[in-house]
Design a protein that fits this description.
Length: 122
């Protein structure tokens, strides 16, 4: 809000109006959980929803970070396998059993990544 006497000064508006919304105990718990998941207070969360703003989700960001970490792990494992396949002198001591173990780790990592992606889609 702009001060009428001095237009260069911007006054901060106070939110002094309150709305009362009756809810069931289960609804209250769910609203509080969703607000927490979004990293907002209940008031901020409900205000954003009521005004039609999209509510950001902290959980989605955590899932994206998890996917990025898994993707980086897969890249590192792929690099190790490439090194082994090129018969690099640094990998002479790595046998087939180590390669198979590395491939198993990659498969497990892919499975974990798929689980995270499926949860993200929900």
């Amino acid at each position: 809000m702009i001060d009428k006497k001095n237009p260069k000064i911007i006054k901060k508006e106070r939110r002094d109006k309150k709305l009362r919304v009756p809810v069931l105990p289960t609804e209250e718990a769910e609203i509080k959980n969703k607000a927490t998941d979004a990293g907002l207070t209940v008031a901020e969360y409900l205000r954003n929803l009521g005004l039609g703003y999209q509510v950001p989700s902290v959980i989605d960001n955590r899932k994206v970070d998890a996917l990025l970490r898994i993707n980086a792990d897969l890249g590192r494992l792929g690099g190790l396998i490439k090194l082994w396949l090129t018969n690099d002198k640094r990998t002479k001591l790595i046998g087939k059993s180590q390669l198979h173990m590395t491939l198993d780790i990659i498969r497990n990592t892919q499975s974990t990544m798929l689980d995270v992606i499926m949860k993200l889609k929900k």
